[in-house]
Fold:
Amino acid sequence: MNLPTTPSEWERLLSVATPEERAEIEAILAADMKETIWRPQVGRQMEALNSQAYITGYGGAAGGGKSDLISGLALTQHKRTLILRREKAQTDGIVQRMTEILGSTDGYNSQKSVWRVTDRLIEFGGLDNPTDHQKWQGRAHDLKAYDEVTEMRESQVRFTMGWARGPDPAQRARILMTFNPPTTAEGRWVIDFFGPWLNDKHPNPAKPGELRWFTTIKGKDFEVEDERPFVLFRGDPVYDYDPSEFSPEKIITPKSRTFIPSRVTDNYFYVKTGYIDTLQSMPEPLRSQMLNGDFTAGVEDDEWQVIPTAWIDAAQARWKPRDAKGEMDSMGVDVAVGGKDNFVISRRHGTWFDELIRIAGREIPQEAAGPISAGHVIRHRTDRAAVHVDVIGWGLTTCNFLTENEVQVMPVNAANVSLERSKDGKLKFANVRAELAWRMREALDPTNPDPVALPPDPALRADLAAYKWKLTSRGIMVRLKAEMKEDLGRSPDDGDAVLLANIQTMKLEVYEEIRRNVVERDRYRELD
Structure:
């Protein structure tokens, strides 16, 4: 006889059991509950519990037992837990579930949002404000649980993940992210983060629960073959190395990642309540998102988004790497010196944009900002391309050094007044920033006869989708960089660099050739 493996099978067994058999089964279950206060439901929830991945994504549809899994892990598997929502008040649902499991709120301090259960510490927090993640800097937890992570900023999640550890070396540390499909463009980063499982265009898709290994190099995720440590040599991983020849920070150890889908049908108790009927009554695309966990269903753009996300996706889908890139026409440079922002260079060859070059701002000291930043530009510039530099902040110093070295540089002050109009001639621009963002919109418009190709970079995609506009008496106004930073949790350096590279500036030698031809023509006319 095969033993039941799901709650529904147990219920069917109980329905045909004799009173004596039923009493025996209930006695066994009661004894089991004395050993542990919580057990996962057989199926996807148990699979997530037992996964050996360092980072586990769990969910995909409403009602799959996400909050229950977080509660159970915190109460039975871990000693120090941090549970985060976008707003701290949203953690009340998990507090309620823990109360149901424990039977009381003994040990819970609502003022400090801390729950002590015997030797376990569980903390609750939110990541609503752009600086909220800093509260958790250096705070070690062996379980970091992000509930509805698609509502959070990617940068804040990655920052707080850095302290997933505990004082007990025998205690496993892990990260759990639970979520439904994103309903806004800001949450799309999760699809790229779990790309092998969620991105239907991923070149090497993964099965549910399959382990993949990733590391982050210069702020970008890279998937590698397995968990073996390696060092970088000229940008490529090298596994055959002598550890004694490298400092510990130069040795990279990949971390495992997986995604396990769950739906309401995996949650036997929700099925019994008729929750499926509730989800089925939702309008599309919410119905497909919440009932089926469909990550391709209608993620809506903000109605004031400058560039529709679908246009960005199309431009990135067109992009293919090139050995022969053609002549470089333009460079866009978003300058950062010191601090957390990146110094970003975008290179444009016709309508094809090369992969972005990012240099950490902290690698450019203030005392040598001019020569170092200008050196980066010159090193990556070819074909005497015109260089467009954002001069707000340290950009003017970069411009001065480039000018001294006879580089054609165009200083761009985004706050200056624009005298231009939209392509159709109907709309004015309040300033240069609005003009640049709108020109990128026009370039990516599907009706553009010269299609633009953008590198398939998730951070660039997020930046370009973050530009929002409004119409004022002065014309189109695009929100400030500081306002975008609040939404993104970082500076939109990548997007700004691409906007600058999109500027059409005649090369100096072309201009000089035209000028000479005009002078020569006028001289011949005088002779005639």
Observations:
- The two ends are 110 Å apart (CA to CA).
